Amino acid sequence: MSNLKHCFKHGSKHGSKLSLKSDLYAFTLIELLVVISIIALMIGILLPALASARQSAYRVQCLSQMRQVGMGMHMYLSVFKGYYFPNHHPDDPIAAAGMPVVVEIPWYERVASVTDFEPKHMFSPGDPYAGKVFKIDGTDTRIVSYSLNGYFGVMGANIRNLNSPSSVVFAALRGDTDFIGKAEGDPVTTHLAFHPWEAIPFPYNGTELAHWWSEGLVLDRYLKTSNYLFADGHAEVLGEEGLQEAAAYPGDRFYAGEIHP
User: Fold this and answer.
1) Burial grade of 72 (CB within 10 A; 0-12, 13-18, 19 or more)
2) Residue 260: inside a domain, yes or no?
3) Which residues of 58-71 are buried (b: 16+ CB within 10 A; e: fewer)?
4) How many Cβ atoms sit within 10 Å of the Cβ of residue 88?
5) Does 259 reside within a domain?
6) Is-contact 165 231, C-beta < 8 A?
């Protein structure tokens, strides 16, 4: 009987200690709300930073791919003695030795057909429509990210006649406007090239403020900037202000035939 009393006595004592510890370490509702608020605040701070880091990484990868396009372009030019991709005949084409024949295939596929360039480099990591298939002029077409400056797709265009290759944009990131509200497989009116002459008064006198980038391009793909490939093969990150120093018009001597496609 005395042992039983002893157990009850000590059990009661230990129970009091457990109860006391529970009271000391329990969270109140206010403390839980404070912790949740701190976690939510940290997430709100970190997520934009992570998104920014991801966009920055995409931009670097895109620049690297553009340089691959530039290398492929110059290998192509070495094969065809400096002549670019003749997707259009001018009104008065001039035959020249080594000039490539006009074939209605995408310019990047033409480059891949005679060089080691791989078309996979045409898909920018930040492009939401890259690689998707839409109908262009009734043909299923896999959409690429880089849009060719249309001035480079005319029969007779040769790099030897190009004004300042380091300042003339050869290709830029294609815009998304034509795809908004469209499902994959739908017809679209987009092109594989942008047309600066639709924004630049023609003939171009070199004195007007010509916003050639306003037609068919995206200017803020990566952190309010976009990437541009120049005719000499280098690629740059430019904001809209930086575009003022770049050019799309290659000069009057660029064509063997007429100036306008």
Assistant:
1) buried
2) no
3) bbeebbebbebbbb
4) 18
5) no
6) yes
| Residues 46-60, mean pLDDT to the nearest whole number | 87
Q: Tell me, yes or no, whether 194 lies in a domain.
A: yes
* pLDDT, tens digit, 9 for 90 and up, residues 125-138: 999 999 999 998 88
Residues constituting the chain? 261
Dihedral sign computed on CA atoms, order 207, 209, 213, 214: negative
Q: Rounded mean pLDDT of the chain?
A: 79
Whether residue 203 is predicted with pLDDT greater than 60 in this model: the reply is no
Q: Is residue 97 part of a domain?
A: yes
Count CA within 13 A, CB hemisphere, residue 251: 14
Look up the domain containing 54 and give its range: 2-254
Q: How far apart are CA 167 and CA 249, in angstroms?
A: 10
Tens of pLDDT, residues 15-28: 545 454 555 566 78
Are 217 and 226 spatial neighbours (Cβ–Cβ below 8 Å)? yes
pTM for the model: 0.75
Q: Phi, psi at residue 227, to the nearest 5°?
A: -105, 145
Strands (E), 162-212: 169-173, 187-188, 193-194
Number of structural domains in the chain: 1
Residue 28 CB burial class (10 angstroms; 0-12, 13-18, ≥19): exposed
pLDDT bracket for residue 8 (50, 70, 90):
very low
